[in-house]
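Q: What would this complex look like in 3D?
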Amino acid sequence: MTESAALTIENIGKRFGDVVAVTDASLTLEAGTVTCLLGPSGCGKTSLLRMIAGLERADIGQIHASGRMLAGEGHHVAPEDRGIGLVFQDYALFPHLDVAANIGFGLRNLGAASRAARVAALLDRFRIAPLASAYPHSLSGGEQQRVAIARALARDPAVVLMDEPFSGIEGALRREIQSAILGTLRASGAAVLIVTHDPEDAMRNGDRIVLMHRGRILQAGTPQTCYRAPTSLAAAAMLGPINAIPGIVKAGRLQCDLTTYPAPDVADGPALLLARPEDVTITPSDDDTAKAVTILGNAYIGGKYEVTMAIDDLTLVVHQPEPAIDGRYALAIDGGSVVPA
Amino acid sequence: MIAALGSGGDQIAGSEIARYAGTSALLALAVGVITATVGTVTAWLTVIHDFPGRRIFTWALVLPLAVPAFALAYAYGDMFDVAGALRTGLRAHWGVDLPIAMRSVPGAAFVLGMAFYPYVYLAMRAAFLNQSVDLIDAGRMLGASRWRIVRAVALPAARPALAAGVALAVMETLAEYGALQFLSVQTLTTGIVRTWSVFGSTAGAARLALPLLAAAALLLWIERAGRRGSVQEGGRGRMRPIPVAALNGWRAAAATATCLLPVIAGLLLPVAWLLTLTLAQTPDWTRLIAAAGRTLSLGMAGAVLTVMLATALAIGARKMPYAVRLASLGYATPGAVMAIGLLVPAGMVWRGTGISSGVAVGVGLLLFAYAARLMAAALEPIEAGLARIAPSTRDGARLLGRSEMRTAWDVDLPIARGAILTAGLFVFIDIVKELPATLILRPFDFDTLAVIASNYALDERLGQAGLPSILILLLAIGPVLVLSRRIATSRPGT
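A: Here is my prediction, written as structure tokens for the whole assembly.
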């Protein structure tokens, strides 16, 4: 636990009847940073979010915020007493209250004057002051989202949770809206956790990302680390196309039919060489080491081609400046990583 | 309405209209408060809480819908009659008298409140069930206590449904004839029937009907506006099961008692009372069975006709929305007004064409009145069912080569089948209980159960009036049960 840890989760587990939602999940949220929790639908990320919020009880494990235990050892702090902000996927704005009243809902402990001042400040910060007396049903998706975020921030929470916050916003403004809102959130000093299923959003928005798959956290780290140095095939596949080349590690080096590759920290035994399409280059060659390659498809993806090819019974995806045809090619792999199979 | 503009209606003085209107308004207010309270509290308890009997109450609370309001009036009127067995006994044994006068506005308000609270219960139940759980969670995340969430989030968010449910109950109150006639409470509607039957004056009746129609149109507007609000809220949000709070000890006992009371007061006690009255009688079975047959046939024919028209209208209305609003006005129109209004043009047709007012014509007219009066009740669930069909589903059928008509037949109808059944059941229940329109429009000697009950009750032969009332209950309770089961299981995830 570092000094700036706003929230720590240790070995959290949750099952619903026979269905295991979350297993042994641990993670740390730092103040002033944005963490993206990435996973496919049904992977347990919403359950994890709801346990942090206190809307679900964890079966096992502990949650601490700023040195205070929120959950663990039979202890469960009610959501209303946690001081955590949550932005719902459908925003869950109160339909019978106008925008100002929605934002002020959580500020009951303040006097009328200071509550009005706080609401006005939030309206300004999210540039929705003209909407103060509008009702939720008359707002666009983007406006509703800003109201929902302003409402969650009203009580100055140390932790803000967002469930798929950008799924309701489409089109050209999406990127601009995202960066503007994330800028405001970072400036608030809160630790922000965003749940998303979109890898591109996660890498673009997150200072850190957490990869979750089938109820388990596979890997956590900066987007660069998670993308470049995945710790498993499943983790690697979550962030984009990946080539997995099976081989055997012996004395810190992976041996396989295609190549050999350094694997300094991997124990001897079966292993996988994981390489992104841009890590693999192919050049036509008549060398003895060259391989017979069958091209399965060339897809233009803007600026380059995504070439799908087969070498014996191994299928690889590589990025090439030009489309490729069947023939003998020399393969070079640079920037991959080796993980135990 | 046209008749009112003529100069003929002099039998009714202006002051009398004002007095009737005052009673109607007072009664509407009282019934509104009673139904709102009972309906909301029972819906809130059964949706969000668990206590002994909750599963039974979920549907049992709807059952008073099967009891015609006039049957409740007969039972309570007799039970608390000053010269009745109960009060005579109490006076004789303990020397006490109950300070209850059923034949008064408060008494009538109680009777109609027990008869009509299921409308509010159903509306509020649907509202609470469809409220996004996220809304409640959002309140908690913002630091609100459970009680504040009820007060500041759940209830206000359900306000449109409350307005809609109460508007229905008040519309029924304004249109009620049988119960109020028996309890001697003079409202605009009883005045209309009396003016017509005693003075034979359609014009006088029509003058009484005008304020009633205005009030009804206003209520219909409230009900519609309420529905718009609830649709916006209900469409979004994920269907997570509603967290149910288990009640223990005295809280559980209080919840059970609270839900039991309306079922006792609206169904068990009055029906038991009518049954005991009936046991002392030798009923005229042949007449009753014939009337039951007529009631059943009218109910089924009326339900089929109304639902067919409503379905065609709902599907067609996607192009002409105003037609539906116009057709819905009939629901707010009291049956008595509808019937007398129909007599004028029907009379012209009869005279003009020389068709005698035979049974077929009379029954046709009656069915037409039912369809016109209950169109909105049928349209509402059917429209809601059709609205759930995504436009892309229909577009898909068109692109796969179905014509617009075929699409309606092959796509809309099968998907909205459940909603159409619901509509049919509602219409059937209402027709079986219907009194004033039937009383006015029925062919000579064509008695339904409601008409027989009403005639006996007017002669103060309550024992004889009880059995047809109970037969109506038996006809209606099956459909009410099916309806309430459908409603109880209407939410995925619970």
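A: To summarize the key features: The interface with chain A takes residues 132, 134-135, 137-145, 148, 152-153, 156-157, 159, 229, 232-233, 236-238 of chain B (CB under 8 Å). The beta strands of chain B are 49-50, 245-246.
Q: Very helpful, thank you.
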